[in-house]
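Q: How would the structure tokens look for this protein?
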Amino acid sequence: MSYEFRALLKKVGSGTHTSEHLTREESETATRLMLLQEATPAQIGAFMISHRIKRPTGEELAGMLDAYDLLGPKLTAIAAPVTVMCNPYDGRSRTAPINCLVSLILAAAGAPVIQHGGDRMPTKEGVPLIELWQGLGVNWATLSLVQVQEILEATGLGFVYLPNHFPLAQAIVPYRDQIGKRPPFATLELMWCPYAGEAHLVCGYVHPPTEGMFREAFAFRGTTNFTTVKGLEGSCDLPCDRTVILGIQKIDEFERLTLVPRDYGFAAKEVPLMSTHELIAEMKTVLKAKPSELFQATLWNSGFYLWRAGLCSDLEIGFLTAQELLRSGQVEQKLKQVMERVESLQSIVSY
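A: Here is the predicted structure in token form.
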């Protein structure tokens, strides 16, 4: 048993009236002891549920991110600024995810993208991005971090896969199922940047207080280029059936941005989640630029992210650019390039 950890557990787990917030340093220590399994299973489970009930502070989340920086993987810097898409690890269960398509469009336009996540995960057990990539022919799960780095440099796309690239974090995933609730680690994952170079973080969320925690934690850590998205099921995907609420931080200025889809001709009901097989088939029709609700949602999202990445002077040009990239076949060609790179690396390992 870790007596050092027990002291930290007592602070967060003492109840509504007597619990205390951890300092950034204490939070880093607690997270590190959990990741290294120096705390016992009983201690880890108790801490997770107590911390959830108390609610983490921005300072505590900053300390948790410090521990991830210390023990976790990082892709090294490449020449161009990178967009890091931070989606919920427990996936989607109601609406169709399009972040893989958006990432392909950004990469085809010359704006590199990194995603991160794992397999189906408690408590939602929704469809994760790794499965969608596999359906499109890209199996990130078989690659080492060095190989992901090679693909990022060659194609502008990368995926940090928790089970292979951060087994310490993967090892605490079962606790989510055992406690039956998302622990603050689920919030941490929406802010984590497994990249060592210049990055623009995109952080999805559901509940407005979460955005406040993002901003506070980033202020502690000196993170000055990020976008917050009140997205579909807490993802980076912009909704089509309601006003989009965004926060844009550039250096020392934070701007609140609201976008009304119908003002740009994109108002529609959200595309419901279908079977993975059906969703992959629909995604492939988008790559062929065939009109559909999913195609429209992809243009809506991609146009915004092309603008946010600085590749387009306004949103309208962003939408037109995304459409042209799809219709010209450049996005489909980008997927083919990634597939070929992955396959070539896999064949080397097999040989």
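The two ends are 45 Å apart (CA to CA).

The chain is about 50% helix and 10% strand.

Upvote if useful.
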